[in-house]
Amino acid sequence: MNKSKGESLKLTRLMMVLSGFNILFLLWAITGAEVLKEYKWVFTCKGAEKIVTPYLSFQIICFLMIIIPWGLLRRREKTARKNKDIRKLTIIKAQDHREHLLVYLLAVLLPLWASNMAEIRTFISTIIALLFIVFVFYNLRLHYINIIYAIRGYKIYTIFPADSDNAFSGKTSFVLITPRDYIDKIEDLKCYRISDTVYMESKEDS
Asked: Is residue 158 within a helix (H) or strand (E), and if so which, with residue range?
């Protein structure tokens, strides 16, 4: 009986999922959550009271949710290049996510953004909904858009490699970040391993 190897670099894959919500975090960082203006946190430090507003804290957290995932992905990318962590993949099938982009924007991002967070219950339910979506995306290995990679000229594909090329389980699909506009069904690609399920092809090799 074949046993699947445990996946490594799971944090990197989580950062890849979170980075797909950069647009949402940016919009929230700009507009904030009106309901949080009503609240204040008072801390006492060395006899002096300090007031912290959740409204400002929420905006800062949103900016961090943009910066931290991208920073960790970029760091892993540089490490893979430096260590020449390269895998050669034979692709059987490639799925272009651009055809699902409109559905993703209308069905996921827009409802979260359009949610009226004027009441604390609505705010909490929106955050819970986002956490659930991230959980689903992480477990199903769904990646649709990454604005920073798009600006750099990269596109995101789900690829289905030959069983012998998959060191993780032999049957698991991968995410490929590449500058290519299309990918042939069977094509050998040398890619940097960002995680066990996320690979990146440099512009020099495409």
From this structure: strand 155-161
pTM over 0.85: no
> What confidence tens digit (pLDDT) does each residue in 138-166 have?
888 777 677 888 888 888 888 877 664 55
Backbone angles phi, psi at 31, to 5 degrees: -90, -30
d(CA 82, CA 43): 45
Give me the count of residues in the chain.
206
Residue 192 to residue 15: CA distance in whole angstroms: 17
Burial of 19 (0-12, 13-18, 19+ CB in 10 A): buried
pLDDT tops 60 at residue 8? yes
β-bridge partners, 44:
49
